[in-house]
Amino acid sequence: GGRIRAGTVPIQGGFQAAHGGNTYDAWIAVFDATLAALSYSTYAGGSHNEAEFGSEPLGLAVDAQNRVAIASATTSNNFPVSVGAWQTVYAGLRDGFVTMVDPAQVGAASLVFSTYLGGSGNDGLADLAFDDLGNLHVGGSSRSTVLPFVHQLRAPSGDPTFDDALVAVLDPTGSTLRFAS
Q1: What are residue 127's DSSP bridge partners?
Q2: DSSP state of 110
């Protein structure tokens, strides 16, 4: 996974065959075991930028079923979110996102889920990992004072010049936020 400019990579079997717009979209690619052939690739992006700052982290994890999840940040209010996702509406200046694909599927069927995870300010996700139950644990940063907190450990600092750490847990379907603080 990474960020990519329009038209610079082949798309094979992905849920989003065309670049979403502006300069950068997130991109997911899966190669065969020998790394000789591209098995699956897709854009993941809306009309603005995903992972736009060049040094913007992009988390990547693979679950026990070889499904791939990425997490980063977007300024797109039309990022491709899935029906039933935890957060389907863009909420702030920059929102985190989590997108999970099944490269064994093709086209729209390959999208397991895609959701925003952000609030009123600048938010971004930098890393993620699966637990044994398939839940996604994500980490990043937030400047939001309004965020979909669940079992919050402490209130946001409210300081617009510094980021607060953000930790969240999504269920395996991306439809339930189990924890966010």
Answers
A1: 139
A2: G
Are the CB atoms for 79 and 94 separated by under 8 Å? no
pLDDT over 90, % of the chain = 61
For residues 87-107, give the mean pLDDT: 95
| Distance in angstroms (rounded) separating the CA atoms of residues 180 and 46 | 25
Residue at token pair 């690619």:
29
Q: How far apart are CA 120 and CA 95, in angstroms?
A: 9
Q: What is the pLDDT of residues 17-34, one digit of tens each?
A: 998 888 888 889 999 999
DSSP 158-175: --TTSPEEEEEEE-TTSS
Tokens in use for 31?
């190669």
Query: What is the distance between the alpha carbons of residues 174 and 18, in angstroms, rounded to a whole number?
Result: 24
Global pTM reads 0.91
**For residue 121, what are the contacts with CB-CB under 8 A and spacing of at least 6?**
92, 93, 94, 142, 143, 144, 145, 160
Q: Which residues of 107-139 are buried (b: 16+ CB within 10 A; e: fewer)?
A: eeebbbbbbbbbbbbbbbbbebebeeeebbbbb
**Hunting for tokens 């993620």 — which residue is that?**
128
pLDDT of residue 3: 57
For the chain, how long is the longest CA-to-CA vector? 49
